[in-house]
Amino acid sequence: MNDMSQPPACTPGDFKSDCKPIWCPGCGDYTVLGSLTKALAALGRPPHEVVVVSGIGCSSRIPAYTSCYGFHGVHGRALAAGTGLKVARPDLTVIVAGGDGDGYSIGGNHFLHACRRNVDLTYLVMDNHVYGMTKGQASPTTEPDWDNKLAPGGTGVRAFHPLVIALAAGANFVARAFSGDPNGTAAIIAQAVRHPGFSFVEILSPCVTFRPEQRQWREHVHPASVPETDDAARAARRIMTDDGFNIGVLYAGGRAPYQPKPPGNADPAELEAGFEL
User: What is the pLDDT of residues 200-258, one digit of tens each?
Assistant: First the structure.
């Protein structure tokens, strides 16, 4: 007889919607989507217990391509929506997905404070160092000397370093993956979701349309030379000397996740008394 006490096993296909993904041929986001569905299957929670939240951008289309509950928010506000959802429904697995423009530019303030609050959710950022949806402008992670039609000679502005910022702001889990390694990316995503607190995963996802030179990233990525650490100071030293292509878990901390106080049944008379002049 079948053991009815055990939930049925999930497959990656259970997490895919009927919507056909629409990205440029060769975009790394295709394999990130596959890695995400593989990670969710490994975690074993059914689609109706998972929520994928996003903002605006190429990578932010992901909620529509999954069978989970989804929320496609406004530009830069995905973490605000995801944080509120997780606090209100702590029983759900909440994954926020976005890109380097959405997450680090207009959403940069939310990124800092999501790390600081340490709510138990996972943030996946598909970083291609460019605004792909809006025709190739420089993003916060673009190299200052990247020459293009919109910024001849480059912006001259120092690139944003997401992993350093995440660690300094208080993220409890910091990792980097590469879309060209779908199995490795799936394993890192699953580990990030399992880890308590705010988990941040930067996924190098080439934009072959506006940054065709990023096809060479496959030759540059390499496993981190040392194992993950729970020592923030040691992780900071590692990240500050990082070449941008170390793949793996860089920091897995032990800070307790934010736990909101349960709502109580306040006496209306006591509330009114608090506002008396």
Answer: 999 999 999 999 999 999 999 999 878 889 999 999 988 888 889 999 999 999 999 99
CA atoms within 13 A on the CB side of 9: 6
pLDDT computed for residue 7 by the predictor: 55
Look up the domain containing 135 and give its range.
12-273
Please write down the HEC assignment for all residues of the chain: CCCCCCCCCCCHHHHECCCCCCCCCCCCHHHHHHHHHHHHHHHCCCHHHEEEEECCCCHHHHHHHECCEEEECCCCCHHHHHHHHHHHCCCCEEEEEEEHHHHHHHCHHHHHHHHHHCCCCEEEEEECCCECCCCCECCCCCCCCCCECCECCCCCCCCCCHHHHHHHHCCCEEEEEECCCHHHHHHHHHHHHHCCCCEEEEEECCCCCCCHHHHHHHHHCEECCCCCECCHHHHHHHHHCCCCCEEEEEEECCCCCCCCCCCCCCCHHHHHHCCCC
Q: Tell me the per-residue pLDDT of 108-147, one tens digit each, with 9 for 90 and over.
A: 899 999 999 999 999 999 999 998 888 888 888 988 888 8
- Strand arrangement of the beta sheet that strand 50-54 belongs to: 69-72, 50-54, 93-99, 122-127, 199-204, 173-178, 246-252, 222-223
**Has residue 142 been placed in a domain?**
yes
Any domain includes 3: no
Domain count within the chain: 1
What's 22's domain CATH number?
3.40.50.970
